[in-house]
Amino acid sequence: MKIPVGVLHGELSSHNMLKDPGLIVRGFLLFDIVNLLVYSIRIRYLRLSVRTLPFQGGKRGSIPLGSAILIHKYLMRLIALGDSLTSKDKNWPNPLSEQLNCELINFGITASQNLLQIQIFQDWLLDNDLKADDIVIWQIGMSSDPVIAVGPEHTNRVERLERIMQNKFFMSHYFMRDENKIDNERRINLLHVSPMYRKFNTTSHPNPEADVLQNMLFIFLMIKKMCPRLLVVLGADWMIKKEHWENMKKFFGEKNIDFVDESIVSWCIDKKLQFLEDLMESPTSHPRGHPTEESVKIYTDEVLLPKLKSLGWI
Question: What is the arrangement of strands in the sheet containing 186-190, beginning at the earlier edge strand?
Fold first, then answer.
């Protein structure tokens, strides 16, 4: 960027500033205004990158889907958590991040449970910081099944099964977590679709859902202290018990946690939007289905964006 001529040779030259100290203040103001204009112009043409969790194949790192010309340290990010209603490229996080023109960090994993989402977010938070300008949208999924983790000694078997699952069902059956900060070992979390899940699931608990949801409430409170812009959404009504959702909403009201009352699936059904299962030869029941890409865009435009605007976040 070229420095305006007037800054070097005109009213704001160093010679004149020495004679009139008041000009120093005006000089800094001019620099700030010019930098702000340049920053605004460059931001308009910013192509941001999307980071999603590489749960398939157990690899680590991020998957860049674009490159950022400039990312300011205070630039808003959209951080999404959830299951298959959040994880896919054609789900709500993508159109929402495009509308907001912000970086997307998507932690959603197909067939994951709420507890796994908590663990993934905790792993990320150990090495990263939430910013006050971030928007965190947490989609609540299922909590009925416990999260089963196996040690690194099962890596070979897990990877062999992964190849079968990918070739036959086009989906992953496990997620490789980051190294534990205490013992420096990585845990292998088996998703509930894993052929190994039942073998290692020896947990017996009368009501695991209530305990997991209570843990989520604690995590939500911690997020609010670091980043006030937290929004909770429910994936589908059948994912948690009705009385549990009602108790959670009561807690949200008491702790000033923002949420969307109607679940994603129920809203799409009420609007008579299309589901992916409509396009299959043997459709499943809608309450357990997934909205199409177009349906998700409508949900984003008519629910999420108006909600964020009403909260004054955008």
Answer: 148-150, 186-190, 174-179
Q: Which fold has domain 48-146+203-310?
A: Rossmann fold (3.40.50)
Beta-bridge partners for 103: 77
**Domain segments of the chain as ranges:** 5-43, 48-146+203-310
Q: How far apart are CA 235 and CA 245, in angstroms?
A: 12
Q: Can you tell me the distance from the alpha carbon of 35 to that of 108, in angstroms, rounded to the nearest whole number?
A: 37
Return d(Cα 55, Cα 37) in angstroms, integer.
40
Q: Is the alpha carbon torsion for 194, 198, 203, 204 positive or negative?
A: positive
Residues 126-147 have pLDDT tens digits of: 999 999 999 999 999 987 666 6
| Residues 250-276: tens digit of each pLDDT | 999 999 999 999 999 999 999 999 998
Do 173 and 196 touch, CB atoms closer than 8 A?
Answer: yes
Q: Report the alpha-carbon distance of residue 138 to residue 81 in Å, rounded.
A: 5
